[in-house]
Automatic annotation (TrEMBL):
This is AP-2 complex subunit alpha. Residues 878-1013 form the Clathrin adaptor alpha-adaptin appendage C-terminal subdomain domain. One of its GO terms (molecular function) is clathrin adaptor activity. Residues 24-600 form the Clathrin/coatomer adaptor adaptin-like N-terminal domain. One of its GO terms (biological process) is intracellular protein transport. Its main location: membrane. Gene3D superfamilies: 2.60.40.1230, Leucine-rich Repeat Variant (1.25.10.10), TATA-Binding Protein (3.30.310.10). It is found in: Endomembrane system; Membrane, Coated pit. One of its GO terms (cellular component) is AP-2 adaptor complex. A 1,2-diacyl-sn-glycero-3-phospho-(1D-myo-inositol-3,4,5-trisphosphate) binds at residues 38, 48, 52-56. Residues 628-750 are annotated as: Disordered.
Length: 1042
């Protein structure tokens, strides 16, 4: 803070002594009003007063207050001849103005004069302002003047030249045409080779990197100066004050190594040998381990800090050298590459997590080099051990590396280990695991029967994350490709395997889809071992409990079985006739079409329902699973645009419909068109014009069909993900499990309360489990309406379950309509009870769902049981996320503060939520604030359908917004339904493990129910304390929702 200004000193002291935010606001407003009044008559102000008031404005701005005046006074200070006043003016312009401000035009000429001024201090101020603001105005008028400061003959101090290079980089990023390689390549190369000041060299390399990140073409003249400069720095040509923990100018070394990664290996043998010698010297230099004994509760000593800093410095240079080795590929010396692989093995075994991560990531890129692959494979056991790490980023890198080093020598060991890990892996890793296991199994399996076994095991271990693309690929492989290979044995094996897995009454829906296709297409191979009727029964036992799209696949499989064997005609036609009355339009259409087809002539049915033909060789070579994987670049030197695009995606997979996988089909078609056009130009076609026109028409039809198929692959069957996080589905009610929903630990079979609580925030799960009866529930919601599918299954071998009554309690806040409940379930039978609900008004306790059942056993008397359930239809099921900007949220939040609109609940974190955080984090003994906030975020966004608002940077605060929908018409406009805006704020006190929840809505009853529902999951009920504004009417205390 500038000294000698009493008024500024008093103002800062007053601000620091304010007891609260309101007092500070009052004091700042008073001072701003005073300054504004002074500036209205600025002609009478002295330079000292103007400078003092500008410093006060800057201090208020740094406190977070908006400053919308005083800009002209700052401009006037810039023109002052006094350094202190010019300093204040430049600083105010840098902080208070943007690059698009019109006021910048007023100071452009003054900045230009100061840049060319002989006083280096004024030049430094002008360069600082130019670098901070940038902008088109400065770029057009000042670039050439700044470039003169770095002319070889210019006698400017080194710190001015450093600022000039940084300023040129700022202006270049605003206008890429300012620096072109034809004029600047030789200039920068000469400066790089002749400059002796290490600081100037570092700034120059920053400019060079900024230019190369945009377009590295045409800058080859920089290779030789970069190599020579790097050799000079490593040789000790650096001042002692640039030696950081025994490493000479580490930042300059890193930048030079990165510059070399933008260019191919030099063709000059002397330069290439020089570069290899540099890399060998870097790798052979011993490094210090960052790990040191550190006892719990003992402060880190100065020696520990120095050891850590030195380790970070040495490893930073070392890893950048490894990146250059990977970039050089075959041009790098073999001895150096082997030394690199050995060092990376030591890094993977390091006790420091960051070193392990970087070692795995670098080794995964080095694995593409065949020269060092045998050395890397020696570390397979060590790499597999990293898959047990609690840090998911390390596990992901270990998985990438195993994928890279897997070949026909070690594929069985790696795939078997990955399958074992898949059993107990968390959901975040399972998707990547199943994708890479599927690719490795297909690529390396000695025969495809082993590949089929692997895929069935994956569906058994992690069915929720096995995407449709994976089982589509199994279908392609089993069906066969156009390579004259007889796949009859493989088809028979796959169909038999499907029968084995579908004998499980509760096989996952993905398993049912794959099994239905395999049995429908290739079940005729099993007729000598298993009758077609038994195959039909195996499939049809799963029909009542699967979703609509899976039922469509089953119906087609039934028709194919009928085409193969007429003995099942009665059973198949009965099912098709029954489904013609289905409420689902897709299922109904499929049933009508197949029923009509099965009653047509035998020839027509055989033509339509014949076995699928083999796929083309193009599909065999273009595995869609590989397209979903992000191929890591060998070089870390990438254009800025590529780096920004890579940063927009997470993990190592492209989501369905995103990235290269989504456009691969169009790209292939485009490439084929270009090849055909080239063939025509070269005269390689001899067909007549008429034949060519017919071929073009057929190609257009094929392209349209391929586009439709690609659209299907992108969107997937509608049942996948329809009941996503928190039950907010948009597809069919009977959808499969949503892989992206909130993942909760399974509850004990007798914990009905826990099952109900989980169902309130997840799309499906168990509702009741006993030795005889299992009740599963799936539900999805759209606005004010919901659809619930309650599946009953009798899993007892000898107990008959009768249902005298199944009732749903009437409630004024909700309408419901239900299908016929089950009457009786014999052993092995299932039944789905469909319930439609329509929310009319806010509520807390959902309707009751009372099941009265009688269990009849052969040995004893019947047992009557009454099961009083509550439908898991809590208020938040009818929420839709409200994506608001920070300004909109703040405005609505402030407008909702008032009587009946706000409710606060505070207390210790609920024990169940704490246990779930520990489970999700994978560290039972640790409970970090970051893990708690991540789980809060998952519950609110996926479980309670709230949009998380990025309002606060505070680590322990979350804001959310949603809209509550009802089916009640608005009084003034019956065409519209009543909706209620809902907002919440969740604060965490990690030191006391307590949370405070604030709910604000536009309706008092919604406020109460909303707050209590959230608190039931986050806050211990016995110690909840209600805090409300003084005028707020008394609200009921938090009630148990169970």
């Amino acid at each position: 803070m500038p000294s000698g200004m009493k008024g500024l000193t008093v103002f800062v002291a007053d601000i620091r002594n304010c007891p609260n935010k309101e007092a500070e606001q009052k004091r700042v407003d008073k001072e701003l009003a005073k300054i504004r009044q002074k500036f209205t008559n600025s002609k009478s102000l002295s330079g000292y007063d103007r400078k003092k008031y500008i410093w006060k404005l800057l201090y208020a701005f740094m406190l977070g207050y908006d400053i919308d005046f005083g800009h002209m006074e700052a401009v006037n200070l810039v023109s002052s001849n006094k350094y202190s006043e010019k300093n204040a003016g430049y600083l105010a312009c840098s902080l208070l103005l943007s690059e698009n401000s019109e006021i910048l035009r007023l100071i452009t000429n003054m900045v230009k004069n100061d840049i060319l001024h002989g006083n280096e201090h004024q030049t430094a101020l002008a360069l600082n302002t130019c670098a901070n603001l940038g902008g088109e105005e400065f770029s057009e008028n000042l670039f050439s003047d700044i470039a003169k400061l770095i002319t070889p003959g210019a006698s400017r101090p080194s710190y001015i030249r450093r600022k000039a290079y940084v300023c040129l980089l700022r202006l270049y990023r605003r206008d890429y045409d300012t620096i072109q390689p034809d004029t600047w390549a030789a200039r920068l190369g000469q400066a790089l080779q002749s400059e002796k000041d290490t600081g100037v060299l570092t700034s120059m390399c920053s400019l060079i990197l900024g230019v190369l990140e945009t377009d590295p073409n045409g800058w080859d003249d920089l290779v030789q100066p970069a190599i020579l400069t790097l050799a000079r720095v490593m040789g000790g040509d650096s001042p002692p004050f640039y030696v950081y923990y025994s490493v000479p100018a580490p930042w300059l070394q890193i930048k030079l190594l990165r510059i070399l990664q933008f260019f191919p290996a030099p063709t000059n043998t002397t330069l290439l040998n020089r570069m290899n010698d540099i890399l060998y010297r870097i790798l052979s230099k011993p490094t210090v381990s960052a790990h040191a004994p550190h006892h719990h509760g003992k402060k880190r000593t100065k020696a520990d800090a120095e050891r850590l800093n030195r380790s970070n410095t040495e490893h930073a240079v070392l890893f950048e050298a490894l990146n250059l080795i990977i970039h050089l590929e075959m041009d790098c010396d073999l001895t150096t590459k082997k030394m690199a692989s050995s060092l990376l093995g030591n890094f993977v075994a390091s006790k420091e997590a960051n070193i392990r991560y970087l070692g795995l990531e670098t080794m995964a890129r080095l694995a593409s080099d065949p020269d060092v692959l045998p050395q890397l494979k020696r570390h397979t056991e060590l790499i597999i051990g990293q898959l047990q790490e609690p840090d998911i980023s390390i596990r992901r890198q270990a998985l990438n590396l195993l994928y890279g080093i897997c070949d026909r020598d070690n594929w069985q060991q790696i795939v078997d280990e990955l399958l074992e890990i898949l059993k107990g892996s968390d959901v975040l890793m399972q998707e990547e695991l199943v994708l890479k296991i599927a690719i490795l199994a297909e690529r390396n399996a000695p025969d495809y029967t082993w590949y089929v076994d692997v895929v069935f095991k994956m569906i058994e271990y992690a069915p929720e994350v096995v995407s449709d693309e994976i089982w589509y690929r199994v279908v392609q492989v089993v069906t066969g490709f156009d390579d004259n290979t007889d796949n009859a044995e493989l088809q028979q094996y796959a169909a038999k395997k499907a029968i084995e897995y579908l004998n499980d009454r509760f096989a996952d829906e993905t398993m049912v889809r794959l099994g239905a296709y395999l049995i429908g297409e290739f079940g005729h191979h099993l007729q000598s071992q298993l009758s077609t009727s038994r195959q039909f029964q195996t499939l049809h036992r799963h029909f009542p409990r699967v979703g609509s799209s899976t039922r469509c696949i089953l119906l087609l499989a039934y028709a194919k079985l009928l085409n193969a064997d007429e003995d099942v005609s009665e059973e198949v036609l009965a099912v098709l006739e029954e489904q013609q009355d289905s409420v689902d339009p897709d299922l109904q259409q499929r049933a009508v079409e197949l029923y009509r087809l099965c009653n047509e002539s035998t020839a027509t049915m055989e033509n339509v329902l014949a076995m699928m033909p083999v796929f083309s060789e193009k599909i065999q070579s273009n595995n869609p699973l590989i397209r979903r994987m992000k191929q890591a670049s060998k070089s870390r030197a990438a254009p800025r645009q590529q780096l920004e695009e890579a940063a927009k995606t997470e993990g190592v997979l492209f989501k369905t419909g995103v990235g290269p996988a989504a456009k691969a089909e169009e790209d292939d078609d485009h490439e084929e068109e270009e090849e055909e056009e080239q063939d025509e130009r070269n005269g390689r076609r001899d067909e007549h014009d008429e034949d060519e026109e017919e071929d073009e028409e057929e190609e257009e039809e094929d392209e349209e069909e391929e586009e439709e198929e690609e659209e299907d692959r992108r969107n997937g069957p509608r049942s996948r993900g329809a009941a996503g996080g928190g039950g907010r589905g948009r597809g069919e009610a009977d959808s499969g499990p949503a892989g992206g929903g909130l993942q909760l630990p399974p509850t004990a079979p007798g914990d009905i309360q826990g099952m109900w609580k989980n169902l309130c925030i997840t799309p499906q799960g168990p509702m009741f489990q006993s030795n005889s009866l299992v009740i599963q529930l799936r539900h999805e919601y759209r606005l004010n309406q919901g659809r619930i599918a309650i599946n009953y299954a009798n899993k007892s071998p000898n107990v008959v379950v009768q249902f005298p009554s199944v009732t749903i309690s009437e409630a004024p806040f909700m309408r419901h309509q239900a299908s016929k409940p089950p009457d009786v379930l014999r052993p092995g039978e299932t039944y789905t009870h469909q319930v439609m609900v329509d929310c009319l008004q806010p509520y807390l306790n959902p309707p009751k769902y009372i099941v009265n059942c009688v269990l009849q056993t052969p040995q004893g008397p019947p047992s009557n049981q009454n099961l009083p359930f509550t439908l898991p239809v809590c208020l938040t099921k009818f929420f839709s996320p409200a994506s608001l900007s920070a300004e909109q949220f703040t405005s609505y939040w402030e407008s909702m503060s008032g009587p009946g609109r706000e409710m606060q609940l505070m207390g210790p974190l609920a024990s169940g939520f704490v246990a779930d955080v520990q489970r999700a984090a994978g560290a039972p003994q640790q409970l970090s604030p970051q893990a708690i906030m991540q789980r809060f975020n998952a519950y609110l966004s996926q479980g309670f359908n709230l949009a998380i608002i990025p309002l606060s940077n505070a680590p322990g605060v979350l804001f959310g917004a949603a809209t509550f929908h009802t089916g009640t018409p608005q009084p003034n406009d019956p065409s519209k339904k009543v909706v209620v805006a809902c907002m919440m704020k969740l604060e965490l006190d990690p030191s006391r493990m307590m949370a405070r929840l604030t709910a604000r809505t536009a309706h008092p009853q919604v406020t109460t129910s909303f707050a209590q529902i959230l608190a039931a999951y986050f806050i211990t009920p016995q110690q909840q304390q209600q805090q409300q504004p003084e005028q707020t009417p008394q609200q009921p205390q938090t009630a148990s929702l169970i």
